[in-house]
Amino acid sequence: MKALGHEGEHPEGRFYPDTYYVSRGVTDLELLTRAYDQMAAVLQEEWQQREDDLPLKTAYEALILASIVEKESAIAEERPLIAGLFVNRLRKNMRLQTDPTVIYGIENYDGDIRFKDLRKDTPSNTYTRHGLPPTPIALAGREAIHATLHPDKTKYLYFVAYGDGSGKHVFSTNLKDHEKAVDQYQRKKR
User: Fold this and answer.
1) Rounded distance, CA 59 to CA 98, Å?
2) Which of 82, 123, 144, 178 has a C-alpha 20 to 30 A away from that of 27?
């Protein structure tokens, strides 16, 4: 980041995920500068067109939330809904409680999240900490950034993956319905 002229910035999430065509002789620094500048341009454009009254103070906070939306949403149509759910949680001062933030803090992640991982306090663990993590947890694409800044207006506060590999989720407005969905789709209790 120092070589790019952005000393002190955390590099996570700062580079736009895209296919870059480069000519022979282009340096890594030139390519990283291009990706950094593209992310800055996309983020600024989307931030200028954001919805009013979001619980996000800066474009960087939007990037952090967009990185979570990116990791939570394999289905493009669900991104604005997931973003709306997280906005609802932020407005209510609820913990985001999102698994990708836990994974981000696990050394040597093996594909499984254990209860001890949910309880281990790391700077990015949104199960143990309120608000957003200190940095993005991944690279967010334009669609996730846009969804974060134009979230669906919903009453949902909870969601759980179907567990069938489709990437789709079941959404709930209350903990009781959410627990039923977790039993049905994750714990496989009927």
Assistant:
1) 21
2) 144
